[in-house]
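Lay summary. Proteins are chains of building blocks that fold into shapes, and those shapes determine what they do. In this project we predict the shape from the chain. Here is one chain we studied, written as its sequence of building blocks.
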Amino acid sequence: MNREQVERAEAHLIKLAAVAAVVDPVPAADLEAAIVALDFRSMDAELARLVFDSALDDLELAGVRSTGNSRQLTFEATDLVVELEVDVHADSPLVGQLVPPGSAEIEIRSLGTSVMVEADERGRFWAPRLPGRLVSLHIKRRHDARAEGIATPWVSLQPSSAYD
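And here is the predicted shape, written in a compact code that computers can read:
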């Protein structure tokens, strides 16, 4: 294949990609998840496990009790538990607590953005709701030097997506 043929083939592939983007676009949620996966900057952090999600618990207990206006998430690492409460209203802040309690620097990440917050001496913290569906917390530094470098997995803040 000569250079001219290669350039024509590349031009055809670009046109084909443009048509595919219109006819069969990548779902926004899949694209967001792929970008977030590439943005996982703390590869050396211990990954905390999601051990409780009230959205899933409420789904299992449907008809037994009513669901509230908030969702509780609990993440567990070797030396730390991160409890997070998410209100169903998109403009409500994220509220959380570290167990055992203690002050810490926490980065709350969402697609393409993040915010640093401080947990107080009781381990309590809050942050404004970030744009995007997915969020992850990274405990950067505990002031008592225990349990630092811990990240939560990316979770969706939209309860309905937990069932999709």
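What the prediction tells us: The helical segments are 3-23, 28-38, 54-60.
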